[in-house]
TrEMBL record:
One of its GO terms (biological process) is translation. This is Aspartyl/glutamyl-tRNA(Asn/Gln) amidotransferase subunit C. Keywords: ATP-binding, Ligase, Nucleotide-binding, Protein biosynthesis, Transferase. It comes from Roseovarius nubinhibens (strain ATCC BAA-591 / DSM 15170 / ISM). The gene is gatC. Belongs to the GatC family.
Length: 95
């Protein structure tokens, strides 16, 4: 498959990318180069090869999912402009 300048202009318009008229031939060539790489990948025989999600076959370490308060109440409230009784204090907005 080959991309011409008209198709490159259409793709640029669909992608909402402004491309000057004199840059369209170079863009079409870049698209053709990308399509050439894809054609090379299609030539690789991958029958019987299991897809992988990672380069290394190890599982990520996971922590135990426990509900807790984070034990950082004082640290969080130290950033508040006003805190009372362990909570953020805000101005009253409803009378």
């Amino acid at each position: 498959m080959s991309i011409d300048t008209e198709t490159a202009a259409k793709v640029a318009k669909l992608a909402r990318i402004r491309v000057e008229e004199d840059a369209l031939p170079a863009l079409a060539q870049e698209f053709n180069t990308i399509l050439g790489f894809i054609e090379q990948l299609n030539e690789v025989d991958v029958d019987g090869i299991e897809p992988m999600t990672s380069v290394t076959p190890m599982r990520l370490p996971r922590r135990v999912d426990e509900v807790n308060d984070g034990d950082q109440q004082a640290k969080v409230l130290s950033n508040a402009p006003d805190a009372r009784e362990g909570f953020f204090a805000v101005p009253k907005v409803v009378e």
